[in-house]
Specification:
With about 300 residues, the chain is mainly α. Helix content is about 70%, strand content about 5%.
């Protein structure tokens, strides 16, 4: 009889372990979906401010466009030392200036995806950029002219974008701290993404049989518990560099543009800056959602094992 009881108990434990494992896998999957879904939803929300900027640019008068471009050239050549540093403004408004690679890309990529490709979005007047260095993959190609120490912008559709990008160029060439931040930006974004999904792939370590947690377990629990804050904080250096580029750009615009044109540039830059803050918040909330979902299923699995 005792052997039979043991066999039934062992089978029951095995069944509970399988249910617990299944609950853990389900929890991890749903937690990952929760993180990605939350981030996607909040990122979509940030498109509202971006669309405001894009609509604003469509209402510029011909005189405002000309004055904004003249002021940008003045900043590049006289107000700052950027032209001496080799910085150029590449104008996407004239299709004759565009390399064949860009026009081919615009034809082959569905238009609904253009906004997600920096060069095509810039060509369409929906984005702008400062590229300090061209990657090795594009050296020796026509794209090098668009990416080597260049502010890329459509000067007819989005002249208000130039000032912020010139601010990035100034940060890169004149401030060591902000240059460093620009260089580590991809790593900071990657780290934030890892922290965002970390709770979905981990669970809280618990002491067993009256033993204390090891230092490694305590550190892991701390990082996991604080992952929403860490994910959001990974964007703080990026926001700081973006803010400084905006401050510089707005300062130059105020000095060189009419009050009305300056307000349009300033408001657009501030709205654009707000989207980076939204991104940081989205990363933090996504990690928080992942943690809550995974913890729920981990607790459920624990209860199943104990039953």
């Amino acid at each position: 009889m005792k052997l039979q009881n043991v066999s039934v108990q062992s089978f029951g434990n095995l069944n509970s372990d399988k249910k617990a494992k299944g609950s853990g896998i389900k929890g991890g999957s749903l937690a990952l979906l929760g993180a990605v879904g939350t981030n996607t939803a909040l990122s979509a929300f940030s498109l509202g401010p971006i669309n405001i900027i894009r609509k604003q640019a469509k209402n510029f008068t011909k005189g405002e466009i000309e004055s904004m471009n003249r002021a940008a050239d003045e900043i590049l050549n006289n107000v700052t030392n950027l032209s001496k540093k080799g910085v150029r403004i590449f104008d996407y408004s004239d299709s004759r200036n565009l390399p064949l690679e860009v026009t081919d890309m615009a034809e082959k990529v569905p238009e609904c995806f253009h906004d997600f490709i920096a060069i095509l979005a810039t060509k369409n007047g929906k984005n702008a950029y400062f590229s300090p260095k061209v990657s090795d993959n594009f050296k020796g190609t026509e794209l090098e002219n668009l990416l080597e120490n260049v502010v890329g912008v459509n000067r007819q559709k989005a002249p208000n974008f130039i000032y912020h990008e010139l601010g990035h160029a100034f940060n890169y060439h004149n401030t060591g701290t902000f240059k460093a931040i620009q260089k580590i930006r991809p790593l900071a974004m990657l780290f934030g993404a890892i922290m965002m999904v970390l709770p979905a792939f981990t669970k809280k370590s618990e002491a067993q049989d009256g033993k204390e947690l090891t230092k490694a377990q305590k550190v892991k629990n701390f990082i996991r518990e604080k992952s929403p804050f860490i994910a959001a904080a990974s964007f703080v250096p990026i926001i700081a560099e973006e803010a400084m580029a905006t401050i510089r750009g707005n300062k130059w615009a105020k000095e060189l543009l009419s009050p009305d044109a300056f307000k349009k540039v300033r408001n657009g830059n501030l709205i654009a800056l707000s989207t980076y803050v939204m991104t940081a918040v989205a990363m933090g909330l996504s990690a928080f959602a992942a943690k809550k979902i995974k913890d729920h299923f981990d607790n459920k699995a624990k209860t199943t094992q104990q039953a």
